[in-house]
């Protein structure tokens, strides 16, 4: 049915589980490196600050963010930084060269001083994984990044195609780069769809699998789905909430409305409420 858009075989999906352990947002190695300011880190910092790739960001990259990048380089997750791919409200995404195994990677760097950090909190409150979180801005952002990492893992286990998360360090997430022959993958909004029916079936099944694993994306639309080498890939899962979240129902309704309205514009006779009903009838998030 959906060969064309590379629907993942659920046989390859693992059981959900271990990422539900408590998420620690205490001081990280990067904070310690930033405080210590040894000579090598200072050199790294100067190099990054002078490089073209980071020119626009240098005023917002604090030392601890630079230390997080430094740590990722030291640990071998990143060998060299490419240019920015996208600059959004809370984060900038860069391409980078990863280790030998992973090749090109995407590096998503969150700003600690994100203007809409209050909105972020709403997604975290009510999630059993973040119950202990206070109102501290830095902690919220750090938890957010860890949550994105955990959500990506959970999505993979559920059989949903997302970028593979590779490393997280403070406010920086390294993940598989989604591209087409080295060029970044277009979003569903930018890609020309030859077969919207099949694409819809794949997105619908991924939404069901996500919900079945107890997650609701919460910001799903044609802008957070990439078309990479013939596969549809769901991204931007930082705000995804568990089924227990007080607003999860509302988020699911909104996700379904966004997806249905995109595919309506592609000529399909689909409706958000029907999509939602189908997902609810065919998933068991409480199991
Ligand atoms: N893993 C990835 N591989 C390639 N491009 C990516 C990847 N993740 C994000 N991008 C690019 O960066 C953009 C923004 O990423 P996203 O995670 O949606 O962040 P934002 O919160 O800013 O919307 C995407 O639309 C996509 O073009
Ligand atoms: Mg996005």
- The beta-strand count equals 11
Q: State the CATH architecture of the largest domain.
A: 2-Layer Sandwich
Ligand types: adenosine-5'-diphosphate, magnesium ion
Largest sheet: 5 strands, antiparallel
Helix content: 25-40%
Q: What's the number of structural domains?
A: 2
Q: Between the first and last Cα atoms, what is the distance in angstroms?
A: 28 Å
DSSP strand (E) fraction? Answer: 15-25%
Mean pLDDT: 85
- CATH fold descriptor of the largest domain: Phosphorylase Kinase, domain 1
Any idea what the radius of gyration is? 19 Å
- Give the helix tally: 8
> What is the H/E string?
HHHEEEHHEEEEHEEEEHH
Weakly predicted, low-confidence segments: 12-21
Describe this structure in words.
The structure is a single chain. The protein has 287 residues and is of the alpha+beta class. The chain contains eight helices and eleven strands. The protein has helices at residues 29-36, 39-50, 63-74, 117-124, 137-157, 196-212, 248-265, 272-281; strands at residues 80-87, 91-97, 104-110, 165-169, 172-176, 179-180, 183-184, 215-216, 225-228, 231-234, 241-242. The strands form four sheets. It has a five-stranded antiparallel sheet with strand order 1-2-3-5-4, sandwiched between helices. The chain has a two-stranded antiparallel ribbon with strand order 6-7. Strand 1 (80-87) and strand 2 (91-97) form a beta hairpin. The protein is globular. The chain starts with 28 loop residues before the first helix and ends in a 6-residue tail after the last helix. Mean pLDDT is 85; it is low at 12-21. Adenosine-5'-diphosphate is lined by residues 85-86, 88, 90-91, 93, 106, 108, 163, 175-178, 184-185, 187, 224, 235-236. The site of adenosine-5'-diphosphate has 19 residues, from strand 1, strand 2, strand 3 and strand 5.
């Amino acid at each position: 049915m959906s060969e064309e858009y590379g629907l993942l075989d659920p046989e390859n999906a693992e059981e959900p589980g271990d990422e539900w352990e408590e998420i620690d947002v205490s001081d990280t190695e990067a904070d310690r490196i930033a405080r210590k300011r040894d000579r090598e880190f200072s050199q790294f910092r100067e190099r990054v600050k002078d490089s073209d790739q980071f020119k626009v960001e240098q005023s917002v990259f604090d030392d601890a963010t630079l230390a997080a990048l430094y740590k990722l380089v030291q640990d071998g997750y990143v060998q060299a930084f490419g240019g920015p791919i996208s600059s959004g409200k809370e984060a900038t995404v860069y391409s980078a060269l990863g280790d030998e195994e992973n090749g090109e990677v995407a590096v998503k760097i969150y700003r600690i001083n994100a203007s809409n950090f209050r909105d972020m909190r709403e997604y975290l409150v009510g999630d059993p994984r973040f119950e202990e979180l206070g109102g501290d801005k830095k902690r919220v952002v750090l938890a957010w990044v860890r949550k994105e990492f955990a959500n990506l893992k959970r999505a993979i286990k559920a059989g949903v195609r997302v970028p593979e998360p590779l490393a997280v360090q403070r406010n920086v997430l390294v993940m598989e780069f989604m591209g087409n022959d080295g060029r970044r993958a277009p979003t569903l909004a930018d890609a020309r769809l030859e077969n919207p029916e099949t694409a819809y079936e794949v997105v619908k099944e991924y939404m069901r699998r996500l919900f079945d694993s107890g997650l609701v994306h919460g910001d799903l639309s044609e802008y957070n789905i990439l078309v990479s080498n013939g596969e549809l890939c769901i991204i931007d899962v930082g705000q995804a909430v568990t089924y227990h979240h007080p607003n999860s129902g509302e988020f699911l309704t909104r996700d379904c409305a966004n997806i249905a309205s995109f595919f309506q514009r592609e000529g399909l006779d689909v409706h958000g409420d029907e999509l939602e009903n189908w997902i609810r009838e065919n998933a068991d998030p409480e199991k």
